[in-house]
Design brief:
Layout (H helix, E strand, L loop, with lengths): L3 H22 L2 E4 L4 E4 L2 E4 L3 H22 L2 H6 L1 H19 L4 H25 L4 H9 L6 H20 L2 H5 L3 H8 L5 E5 L11 H4 L21 H11 L9 E5 L11 H23 L3 E7 L6 E2 L4 E12 L5 E8 L5 E3 L5 E3 L4 E11 L7 E11 L4 E9 L6
Antiparallel strand pairs: 1-2, 2-3, 4-5, 6-8, 7-8, 8-12, 9-11, 9-13, 10-12, 13-14
Bound molecules: iron/sulfur cluster (2 copies).
One iron/sulfur cluster binds next to helix 11.
Length: 404
């Protein structure tokens, strides 16, 4: 028989470790000051709208699909509010039990340990939005003047108040997910259900006492407070298992209110799976096609051309190079299909530091040829070393009409 409480506590521990590790390993992190979005090792720039769009749509449909299939299992097993609220309540209960004769000492011990934990949790939370090393520096300099410092102080205070006083009331008052779940669930969604066709319930109320949301699952499987944690299943299994003639508990996880034992794959679930696969495919294609170094070249047509003292014709161009990788890169420009032309760059290749964006200008000169084209189409290529990508830019070179 599955012990849901033990399973849930193990999942809570794994989620807590993931919560701690994600911002430090850049698996998922949104660096606001640097305007970067980190996703599984990829450093995405805020202007990479396509990838960020696919990422957000993919995550949103994963949440929707999980809610349709597994109901509020996210709330009971994965939600940080649930995990930290239960941990805070358990620590408070234990401290008050250990220090029972000295209630003020127990309160002081609990609130001071919660204050320390709040600083730590707020630090981890803000690390999702600010580079952790930068945050440590701000923390040790007690920075409460900059936006990050003020956010840190505010999040610490809110964390403390939340886990000291609000806890699971948050789930039934503020959190919109429970209400959203009501709209997403259907007749095949996983839920916790009480069924007693043989009138075996001994009215011990243990399922009610052990429920973290203080509800009675026997009234309905659709109560908005129910987070499908399964604690009442363990309670009932334990109590009825102790009877002289042990019985199976009366509360179970079931697929739908009719007591379905198997997950059903209907049209709605197939469509959701296809939508998730579509966005996952779009996301991974966009990531695979992503260029670590973004090169842009535009012709400066404020002046169409210039005739140099050497009699050659000059056209002016501008470039920008954004190195979105973590390595130093070099970009080499070269001309194709423009005979006798010269690329006048002060440096070629151009070095770009990791994360840097540089801009510059250059000229291309070519001999003025009588009978030549007014507009000559050519390609400018930009090769990146060591990344190995090559971008080709179709451009035009303009000569004076009298040179034709
Ligand atoms: S009724 Fe059962 S499954 Fe629902 S929140 Fe309470 S203990 Fe968890
Ligand atoms: S724990 Fe089981 S037997 Fe006890 S009140 Fe709840 S449903 Fe009835």
């Amino acid at each position: 028989m599955t012990n849901w409480h033990r399973l849930r506590k193990r999942v809570h521990l794994i989620c807590f470790l993931i919560f701690l590790l994600l911002p430090f390993s850049n698996v998922v992190r949104f660096d606001i000051p640097r305007q970067r979005f980190y996703f599984f090792g990829h450093e995405l720039w805020i202007n990479e709208f396509g990838i960020i769009f696919f990422t957000l749509m993919f995550l949103m449909f994963v949440v929707i699909a999980a809610s349709v299939v597994f109901g509020r299992v996210y709330c009971g097993y994965l939600c940080p509010q649930m995990i930290f609220s239960e941990a805070s309540a358990a620590i408070e209960k234990r401290l008050r039990r250990w220090l029972r004769p000295r209630a003020p000492v127990a309160s002081a011990a609990f609130y001071s340990s919660l204050a320390l934990a709040s600083v730590f949790l707020a630090f981890v939370f803000i690390s999702y939005f600010v580079e952790p090393r930068d945050l440590i520096r701000r923390l040790f300099s007690l920075d409460i003047r900059t936006a990050a410092g003020i956010s840190g102080a505010a999040v610490t205070l809110l964390t403390f108040l939340d886990f000291a006083f609000v806890r699971l009331h948050f789930c039934t008052t503020v959190c919109p997910y429970g209400y959203l779940q009501g709209m997403l669930s259907d007749s095949g969604t996983l839920l916790v259900r009480y069924s007693d066709p043989k009138a075996d319930c001994i009215e011990c109320q243990k399922c009610v006492r052990d429920c973290p949301m203080d509800i009675d699952i026997r009234k309905s499987p659709f109560q908005i407070e129910c987070v499908h944690c399964g604690e009442c299943i363990d309670s009932c299994d334990t109590i009825l298992g102790r009877l002289k003639t042990p019985k199976r508990g009366l509360i179970r996880y079931s697929w739908g209110a009719e007591g379905g034992r198997r997950f059903s794959f209907d049209a709605k679930r197939i469509i959701l799976l296809l939508v998730v696969m579509f966005y996952a495919g779009g996301l991974f294609t966009a990531l695979a096609m992503r260029h670590a170094v973004l090169v842009r070249v535009t012709a400066d047509r404020a002046t169409l051309y210039r005739t140099g003292t050497d009699g050659r014709i000059y056209n002016h161009f501008r470039y920008s190079i954004a190195n979105r990788s973590r390595n130093a890169e070099q970009v080499v420009f070269s001309l194709r299909q423009l005979p006798a032309a010269t690329l006048l760059l002060p440096r070629n290749p151009i070095s770009v530091a990791p994360g840097a964006t540089i801009t510059g200008e250059f000229d291309i000169s070519a001999p003025a040829r009588r009978g030549g084209e007014f507009v000559t189409h050519f390609n400018l290529s930009a090769s990146t070393i060591p990344d190995g990508q090559t971008d080709i830019f179709p451009m035009t070179f303009i000569c004076p009409a009298e040179a034709q």
